[in-house]
Amino acid sequence: MFQGFPEIKEALMSNKMQAGFMVAPMAIALRAQGVPIKIVYLGHRYGSAVVVQKNGPVKSFADLRGKTVAIPSRFSDERLILFKALAQNGMSANDLHMVEMAPPDVAGALAAGAIDAFSMGEPYPSQAEMGGFGRVLFHAREYWPDYISCVLVVRQDVIETKPQAVQVLVDGIARSGLWLDNPPKRQKRREHAADFVGRFYFRQNPKLLRWALTNPLDRVMYTPLSPRKADFDLVRDLMIETGVLDRPIEFAEYVDTRFAEGAKEQVAWKYEAGTSEAR
């Protein structure tokens, strides 16, 4: 686990890590700067929100005028969603004071009144809601249908020398997404997943992850996860418009779709709570 996206960037660039999840704009920017990575799959869809103080003065987006809003990075979709909301509300970037903040710090900063709002991915919106001091002003999908945030990136040398290993990784993520999003069993499976990864991987309160995965059940979605050109063209164009990308890099330069294509026929894991293995 990393506490922020800059650390993930450095680990990839130094080859201390060969694959990882990061926000889509950062992956695009790194590739445009010549870092040898490619996006091969999505991490999830939706799952980001703008959160304000529960009993504070902000009741609508227009009320954020002049307020301080935390974002995880200037290379993040959570920053771009603010620009989309600004445009739709007749406002500009000058109407907000955006500050970069490590995601684990935002809930405490909001509770302490150090910031007025934050735009972040889960589970930090859920943390503020569960703590009783935060309220979701809007979910990203309200301004950005088919919103994507985190993507899976892999170093180019690994793609070239170990394509089968990359395919196994993507296949496993695809099968996990199908397992989590199974409509009849979605509630039970997501609760089990939250309990398991909260205790054994993330070291986070399972109740927090359960809130993020089930309140409501489509708060975060794990299908479809194939990279789509139209989605990424939108991200790229917003990056250029907001000054964090200096050229219109083409989709094929930073995305390798062959692994998503290879995972299309995958099916959900055969696994239920209490069984000893997934098949």
SSE inventory with pairings:
Elements: H1 5-13, E1 19-23, H2 24-32, E2 37-42, E3 45-46, E4 48-53, E5 68-71, H3 77-88, E6 97-100, H4 106-112, E7 117-121, H5 124-130, E8 134-139, E9 150-155, H6 156-161, H7 163-180, H8 186-200, H9 206-214, E10 220-221, H10 229-241, H11 251-254, H12 258-262
Parallel strand pairs: 5-6, 5-7
Antiparallel strand pairs: 1-9, 2-9, 3-10, 4-7, 4-8
Helix pairs in contact: 4-5, 5-9, 8-9
Describe the structure.
With 279 residues, this protein is α+β, with helices and mostly antiparallel strands. The chain has 2 domains: 5-44 and 150-181 and 222-262, 3-Layer(aba) Sandwich (D-Maltodextrin-Binding Protein, domain 2), CATH 3.40.190.10; 46-142, Periplasmic binding protein-like II (D-Maltodextrin-Binding Protein, domain 2, 3-Layer(aba) Sandwich). It is built from 12 helices and 10 strands. The strands form 3 sheets. The chain has a 5-stranded mixed beta sheet with strand order 6-5-7-4-8, sandwiched between helices. It has a 3-stranded antiparallel beta sheet with strand order 1-9-2. Strands 3-10 form a two-stranded antiparallel sheet. α4 (106-112) packs parallel to α5 (124-130), α5 crosses α9 (206-214) and α8 (186-200) runs antiparallel to α9 (206-214). The longest helix is centred in the middle third of the chain and has 18 residues, at 163-180. The protein is globular and about 50 Å long. The mean pLDDT is 95.
